[in-house]
Amino acid sequence: MTGAADKAERPLSITEIFHSLQGEARHSGYPTVFIRLTGCPLRCGYCDTTYAFQGGAPMSRAEILDQVAAYDCARVTVTGGEPLAQRGCLALLTDLCDAGYLVSLETSGALDIGSVDPRVERVMDWKTPGSGEAARNRPENLALLTARDQVKFVLCDHADYDWARAELKAHEVARRCEVLFSPVQGQLNPTELADWILADRLEVRMQIQLHKLLWGDEPGR
């Protein structure tokens, strides 16, 4: 077996696989199987999945697909942590697409998205100054976005909002893909964000995390 094949077949570190309602992005509200990969090179100040930074259980791609199949669900989201930080993530995404699932990837803007299977819907979290990780954004990723993708701005305050507006204009992001604005729970009042969007006539989609409205911060929901 070649070295490349060895890398592709390495087990992935998995924090959890669970069945829930999609809480964000294009398929919000639909039953979805979530595969949460362990590990993340970023440390956003508002992160709500710090439990996925370390630990996890090793699983082969075949084992992951078997567990996903048991839920008999059409949609699968690969998330983290930062899923692309694990080399085996790309092969897993392709396996899921080959199996006929509607696959989405939740990733930051910090790692290259160019090698992701084109059948995958990429939801890229473009980090704002309020996250503490804006310097990690990879500018080349913006040029890779297509109408199949979405870019998400998680906003802590009005300064983040102003920054996001400037990014949209500078990079013409809305011409490439759908844009999501999301308030950090407990930091930015959703009503305030809605008012700003309306006042500025922004062509963005505001979202509130449905799963948090239903289950709070309970892991695996």
What's the topology here?
Blueprint: H1 3-9, E1 12-21, E2 31-37, E3 57-59, H2 61-69, E4 75-79, H3 89-98, E5 102-108, E6 121-125, E7 150-155, H4 158-171, H5 173-176, E8 178-183, H6 190-199, E9 205-206, H7 210-215
Parallel strand pairs: 2-4, 4-5, 5-6, 6-7, 7-8, 8-9
Antiparallel strand pairs: 1-2, 1-3
The CATH top-level class label: Alpha Beta
**CATH homologous superfamily, by name?**
Aldolase class I
What is the C-alpha radius of gyration, as a whole number of Å? Answer: 17 Å
Whole-number tally of structural domains: 1
Instruction: Write down the CATH topology.
Output: TIM Barrel
Which residues sit in consecutive blocks of at least 5 with pLDDT less than 50? 1-8
Q: Total number of β-strand segments? A: 9
- If strands are numbered along the chain, what order do they take across the biggest sheet? 3-1-2-4-5-6-7-8-9
Q: What's the rounded overall pLDDT mean?
A: 93
CATH architecture: Alpha-Beta Barrel
Name the helix and strand elements from N-terminus to C-terminus, one letter apiece. Answer: HEEEHEHEEEHHEHEH
What's this entry about, in short?
By secondary structure, the protein is an alpha/beta fold. It has one domain (3-131, 138-215): Alpha-Beta Barrel (TIM Barrel). It contains seven helices and nine strands.
